[in-house]
Amino acid sequence: MTKLYGLGTALITPFQADGKVDYEALDRLLDRQLNGHADYIVVLGTTGEAVTLSGEEHAQVRRHIVRYINGRMPLVLGVGGNCTANVVARLKDLRDELKDNYAAILSVCPYYNKPSQEGLFRHFSAIAEASPVPVILYNVPGRTGVNLLPETVMRIWEAHPDKILGIKEASGNVEQINRLIDLSRKSKVESQERLLVISGDDGIACEIMEAGGDGLISVASNAFPEDFRKIVHEKDAALQARYTEMIRLLFCEGNPSGIKTVLSQQGLITNALRLPLVANSPDVQQLIRQETARLES
Predict the structure, then answer these.
(1) pLDDT of 111-156, one tens digit each?
(2) Dihedrals φ, ψ of 206, to 5°?
(3) pLDDT digits over 52-100, tens only?
(4) Which CATH number is correct for 6-235, 3.90.550.10, 3.30.420.40, 1.20.920.10, 3.20.20.70?
(5) Is there a catalytic annotation at residue 102?
(6) Is 235 labeled as catalytic in the residue annotation?
(7) Which one is catalytic: 40, 102, 163, 168?
(8) Which of 138, 163, 243, 260 is an active site residue?
(9) What is the percent of the chain where pLDDT is above 90?
């Protein structure tokens, strides 16, 4: 089982002004991650606007990334949803592609349905049994409306220790995340590796790692991979604090609107999103430009 420590970048999907996927810009973004020494890339997750891509576009994007990266960096593919049967069927359809090209999948908690903790346990158990590669759970209550509690995470992992690699924890609840880290340390399940607890929030990565966490899956590292690699690998709290205002701006009108503003201002992409997402307001774009200039000064 590949261990995904360090900095993972939740890659955006660039679009042209007419809404088509911009593959030239995608190559520039991939070069940015390779040259910035991110440890791995998360492909077609929430930040990648995956739910707005057609099935054909989804296949084209993930295959393009696999070809371009060509084994130079581990890849994680977003595979989740709020219908367990559909996710399981998709995993079966992708079986060979996943085994050949991806270190793991990232699977978000079911959204909108608001399942109980028992429902979450059964959902992720079905995914663990169906997936041909290890699974990273993804807890993001602000988007899904449901919170995957530490005790349920441990129950899932202890039932499938050889399939559940870890969790991307984006609840923002430091006390909850610390409790999960503590529970994972105390687990008596026989496994070659312990559960990875990965921060899903750029602004608290150092705090989570100081408590025993295992890195960060980052939005900001799309634009600033070198700095966020330093934050993660050196636990550089001062550098993380320097990005506090930028992180606030990145999310103040939704993700990936903020990071696409930064990348467009860096000349890497066109500032285009797919509805229902839209570009940042002119005021926020100006604030981001000013904050980028401050960071670069």
Answers:
(1) 999 999 999 999 999 999 999 999 999 999 999 999 999 999 999 9
(2) -65, -40
(3) 999 999 999 999 999 999 999 999 999 999 999 999 999 999 999 999 9
(4) 3.20.20.70
(5) no
(6) no
(7) 168
(8) 138
(9) 95
Report which residue type is found at 117: Q
